[in-house]
Write a structure and sequence with these properties.
With about 350 residues, the protein is α/β, with parallel strands linked by helices. It has 15 helices and 10 strands. It has one domain: TIM Barrel, CATH 3.20.20. It binds flavin mononucleotide.
Length: about 350
């Protein structure tokens, strides 16, 4: 049966992926409270439709940091796409381009960053974790800049990878043929060492991520790139203002899809606080638990400029490569269009919190 919504793709992934890969993809940290709360919080928000509005012309197009998108939707940075499909990031970046979506590559992409850029037909950003090895970090930034990536996304909620029970139980380790090829094999070695009861990626992060960085270190990165800087993992108005004060170009309200600090609120509940603190001074993106175009509408109505979508894109990739991932992104855009028409807000520009009940 051809999948018709995101839930169908999720169900397919459950039955087709190897248990340890499924656990790494779908799992969260701690007791997975935040993971569950993310999707549930979007579900809880009700829509408040206006009727007898001319809905003949609906427009989902958006602009983000100077790039045009078919809808305010992007692919969240996720490590190792080749875990779920042999074409990996090449398949997903092609899908994003075909669907008019933003693509954010992970620093731990399993495909060469220049090959990803060559396959991209839409805007492309590069995500970074701050590595202790600043030369390696800088080298990656320089290569991303040269390859045509248009922004850097620094993930700030992960001085180390959190304990994720599913990975600890499976002793999750990267297979030898799925590697973070944009970093040296020496730098990535610990992510490939199997040990019962240990998550190799958690252990690797303790060895290689720099937990000492603070707001003042952002100037170092700023001074070495001309690309806009996006901070991903902001959850409070206070930190959003810090981000503005430190010259950030955009922020992503994110709890890492419930994979970092368990117990933090779902992003649907945090977004308004951040949007209100920012007061239009920079674009605010949001991710975590977005599973339909209605969820996208809710995020935009709350004041987000765009959403990032994580697991659903990899469920689509696991299903059928580019066509599956592209279908996920097109579905979300089409469901957004339908929701705009049916709520009586046919354009994104007229959408605000009055559309929410
Ligand atoms: C398998 C997987 C790998 C991820 N890898 C990264 C990563 O390398 N860098 C990062 O900033 N976030 C990473 N994330 C978090 C996503 O960027 C995003 O915040 C989250 O998945 C959004 O939630 P959703 O999956 O519910 O849509 C990853 C998420 C998943 C599911």
């Amino acid at each position: 049966m051809k999948p018709v919504d995101v839930a169908d793709y999720a169900a397919n992934a459950e039955t087709t992926l190897a248990p340890d890969v499924l656990g790494y993809l779908n799992g969260g940290s701690g007791a997975e409270w935040t993971l569950r709360a993310n999707a549930a919080a979007w579900d809880r928000i009700r829509l408040r439709p206006r009727v007898l509005v001319d809905a003949s012309a609906c427009d989902t197009r958006a602009e983000l940091l100077g790039s045009a998108l078919a809808a305010p939707i992007g692919v969240a940075p996720m490590a190792y796409h080749r875990l779920v499909h042999p074409e990996g990031e090449l398949a997903t970046v092609r899908a994003a381009g075909a669907a008019g979506a933003l693509f954010v590559s992970s620093i731990f992409a399993s495909t060469d960053l220049a090959e990803i850029a060559a396959a991209a037909t839409g805007p492309l950003w590069m995500q970074l974790y701050w590595l202790r090895d600043r030369d390696a970090l800088l080298d990656l930034v320089t290569r991303a800049e040269q390859a045509g990536y248009r922004a850097l996304v620094l993930t700030v909620d992960a001085p180390r990878v959190a304990r994720r029970s599913r990975d600890l139980r499976s002793g999750f380790t990267l297979p030898p043929d799925v590697r973070a090829v944009n970093l040296s094999s020496e730098l990535m070695a610990a992510a490939h060492v199997a040990e019962v009861g240990v998550s190799a990626i958690e252990r690797h992060s303790r060895e290689r991520f720099d937990p000492t960085i603070t707001w003042s270190d952002l100037a170092w990165l700023r001074a070495r790139t001309r690309l806009p800087l996006v901070l991903k993992g902001i959850l409070t108005g206070t930190d959003a203002i810090q981000a503005i004060d430190h010259g950030t170009d955009a922020i992503v309200v994110s709890n890492h899809g419930g994979r970092q600090l368990d117990g933090v609120p779902p992003t649907a509940d945090t977004l308004a606080e951040v949007v209100d603190a920012v007061a239009g001074r920079l674009p605010v993106l949001v991710d975590g638990g977005i599973r339909s175009g209605r969820d996208v509408l809710k995020a935009i109505a709350l004041g987000a400029s765009a959403v990032l979508v994580g697991r659903p894109v990899l469920w689509g990739l696991a299903h059928s490569g580019t066509p599956g991932a592209e279908h996920i992104l097109r579905l979300l855009r089409e469901e957004l269009e339908e929701a705009l028409i049916l709520t009586g807000h046919p354009t994104l520009a007229t959408l605000d919190r009055t559309a929410l009940g």
